[in-house]
Amino acid sequence: MFTNNPFADLALIIPAAAMQYFVVAMVLLVIISTGLDMLHKKNVVYFFRNAKKAKKFAKTELSTGKKTAVILKTVAHDIATTSELGMGKRRLAHVLGMYGTILFWITSAVLIFKYTDGSIAPTYITSLWHAGALLTCLGGYWFWFFLRVDVSAEAHPWYRIITADLFVLALLACSTFGFAWSYTQFSNMIGLSYLFLILYIISNLVLFGGVYWSKFAHMFYKPGAAIQKNLAEADGSRDNLPPPADAPERFGLGIKREQPKHY
Ligand code: HEM
Question: Which uninterrupted H or E stretch holds 219?
């Protein structure tokens, strides 16, 4: 089943160009919605104004080489491993979901643009497509059922849904229905495979059409903020914040009474 290219079979019923236009439309939706989100929240204006203000407090002028080194280190550490989530389950679940999604999207594009013309897709690409869907499900369902702040710290039931859940749920729906579509298509369950295909298309429309209202754009904002924070630390401006206190940590015995969960 991992060798199945579900898009190749679909190309026997609908033109490959229709799938390719769909992908282009989804990319455009992301670009337009993120642009509108930036205009609405004015977060990028604030970001650059703040960076300019902080620059006045810089203690050293960073050379281009030093800046590049800080940016590369941020990409390799903070962004690639989502280090801001600390060491633990939350970070592991996020990394699984993030790389799963990246794999799923890249291989979807390769399969749709390159292997819907009758040529056979290499098995490593179809396997990576299925693995991407599974990894996204693993990280996403782990987060959804056990790690969400509402569930793990505030003890709300896992089935309580709010607008903020739009992103993670649409993401999970895409990978779950995509995987189920491939499985049922491969197993010749014709009726079910059409049902999952329709659900897969709808969940993609919700995921990419909902960018303006969901947390989707954090994947662009977070890396920008991490780079700015590390540059501000390197030039000594520290975003106008005071340096960490150089004193022993004394919180009293109360700190040990319960696991810290109130974030
Ligand atoms: C393809 C890229 C990415 C995907 C698919 C992804 C996916 C997700 C999902 C599903 C959530 C849970 C959203 C929720 O609270 O309902 C999340 C949260 C989060 N993401 Fe990402 N993300 C991506 C990239 C990034 C990057 C690049 C960073 C940081 C550099 C980042 C940092 C975070 C943080 C800090 C949270 C909050 C986590 C928590 O509350 O446990 N993400 N992400």
Answer: helix 218-234
